[in-house]
Amino acid sequence: MKFQDYYEVLGVDRDASPERIKKAYRKLALKWHPDQNASDKEAAELRFKQISEAYEVLSDPEKRKKFDRFGEHWEHGQEFEPPAGESSMSREEFEAAFGGAGGFSDFFRSAFGDDLRRDFAGGPGQHGRYRFRGADVRADLSLTVSDALAGGSREFQVPARVGCPSCGGTGALSQHVCPSCAGVGQVRRTKTVELKVPANVRDGLTLRLKGLGDPGGSGGEAGDLHLTLRLLDDENYTIRGDDLETNVTLTPWDAENGTKVEVRTARGTATVDVPPGSRSGGLLRLREQGLAKRSAGHGALLVRLRIDLPKELSARQKELLRELGQVAAAEPGGAV
């Protein structure tokens, strides 16, 4: 697979700010979302995956730092590779090398942090391996606001690492480096994950899906998937921070006389009272009906009024409109 320069994928400079990267991602994700490209959905899906992968790396400070330093080999930068012939060691040998069981534990805690869990397979006098917890994986899931508000479950694909099927995850075949995984023991794949969209959905909400990260070493438990939801504007809603803006179209007579309309909000359905004498472009604010906030509560739903005629008018309606125009033209000041 040809190496992708993530900066080129998003169309930003290498010194672009996080805000610039996020803005570029949102623009491209909306343009290439498969639902917006029904005529060539396969090509759109591929492009959309490339954009999401680029943003996943460049939006994470640590991943971006590695990418800037190692380029196409950023994922393997500074990886520890044990010397040949030293893949196995007895429990006593390990403890002696690191100053006893406590010293061994302290060594790995200082080197890898408490998040790296491990246990030993094999009792005293036996050779065994330490099982390592798999790495956590971060990924983005882009949803239009309409899809997010609809709730329900969504299937999506994320890049993943799985145990190499050629060597069984050992990294070697007949004492030679496995050509399929280059000795790493894992290969990149994509996997399908099903997610139930939470009721408190908001842009930037990160969900932790246990056990859906990279597989553990030597049979250790898998890491977790940290999934960040990215909401995209669509034809029905525009994101304004924690607020949402939507349009409601009224007939001229409903705007003049006042009416009630039903709108979909982030918390369900709400009835909007349109006051008599409303004009096109007017804005009504529904408190606590927008997106969930980071701390507590919800933003507002902003309802923008648009006035238009129905697509089909009866003969009587057309006659009355002509009469209205004549009356308006005859009055002082003429028609407006």
* Number of spatially distinct domains: 4
- CATH third-level topology of the largest domain: HSP40/DNAj peptide-binding domain
Major beta sheet, specifics?
4 strands, mixed
Highest-level CATH class of the largest domain: Mainly Beta
Q: What's the total number of strands? A: 17
Q: What is the 3D shape?
A: elongated
How many helical elements? Answer: 9
First-last Cα distance: 64 Å
Q: Helices and strands: which structural class?
A: alpha+beta
**Annotated CATH homologous superfamily of the largest domain:** Urease metallochaperone UreE, N-terminal domain
Strand order of the largest sheet: 12-13-17-16
Helix and strand pattern:
HHHHEHHEEEEHEEEEEEEEHEEEEH
Q: Uncertain spans, ≥5 residues at pLDDT below 50?
A: 78-130
What does this structure look like?
By secondary structure, the chain is of the alpha+beta class. The protein folds into four domains: 1-76, Helix Hairpins; 89-128, no CATH class; 136-233, HSP40/DNAj peptide-binding domain (Sandwich); 237-330, Urease metallochaperone UreE, N-terminal domain (HSP40/DNAj peptide-binding domain, Sandwich), CATH 2.60.260.20. It contains nine helices and 17 strands. The chain has helices spanning 6-10, 18-32, 41-58, 61-70, 91-97, 100-112, 145-150, 252-257, 315-330, and strands spanning 89-90, 118-120, 127-128, 130-132, 137-144, 153-163, 172-173, 176-177, 186-196, 206-209, 225-232, 237-240, 243-250, 259-265, 268-274, 283-286, 301-307. The strands form seven sheets. A four-stranded mixed sheet has the order 12-13-17-16. A hairpin with a 2-residue loop joins β12 (237-240) and β13. It starts with 5 loop residues before the first helix and ends in a 6-residue tail after the last helix. Mean pLDDT is 77; it is low at 78-130.
